[in-house]
Amino acid sequence: MITLAHVRVPQRKPFLWDYSAQPKESVSACNACGGTYWVTLADRDRYGFAVQTHCCYSCGLVFLSPRMTAEAYAEFYANTYRDLIAWYSDRPHDIVKGQERYAEKLMPILEAFVPEGAKTLLDIGGEPGICSERICEEWKLKGILIDPACGGNLLNRGLVGCKPWGQGIGLEAFETDKRFDLILMCQTVDHLLDLKGGLEKVRGLLTDNGIFWVDAVDWLYRLRQCGSVEGAVKIDHPYNLMEASFERLLWGVGLRKVRKVYQGPHIGYVLKKGDVGKVEPDSPATLSLLGEIRKVQASQKR
Ligand SMILES: [Zn+2]
Fold it and tell me: For the domain 70-232+243-299, what is the CATH code?
């Protein structure tokens, strides 16, 4: 019998940024349901930063508190976020290739739902705009990109179909009379500070026949993969969504599912405007079956 030694990951150099010095605020009520009773799950994140994670007892929303203020997050996304991701993954973050691949997977999902005569696109959080540019090109759309990390050199990339809207604009600060036939929020929803308010705002920005694509890490899947709460949370996700809490939130703001997609640890939805809170959830039996499928997917070797 051969016993293999445990592989030790070499100790990385510390990341030179002081999380403890950033301005913070406490969360007083669950952003999704308003509940004030929650369970504290962990006091560290995957990077080792001292941050508490909680789970709302009423709706299952997993969130950080205290967390950085909106100003501190804006500064973080502009100057620190990309470097932190590269440090953690131990390789440069190739966002261009990543967004190209993402667009190629997303277009077949959206194809059947893009409304006839669609003209406009809004990409929320999709800096540097490779994905939205590709989608604008495919369906001849005029697009706008909003992202708190937008700015500097990114504005000079020469985007044609999808243009950045100012420098460093987040969804909260975005004001317009325009309405959009296609809105994208690609792996961004769990970065918002006002999750429910952000989704309500998106609903109001859709044309009557417009569609909205949103996807996020299924936190339960990530938890099963990581084997620890600490390994599955990070300061760049003030919220963590699971299938049930995600769908409850979408129903509550009047977004109706027309397609659901499992892609690795992510769950994505194609949505249309519906009546607020009037859509019935999936049956418990179906959700239980899908939960089993997710367990199998999470345990698959990559
Ligand atoms: Zn809640």
Answer: 3.40.50.150
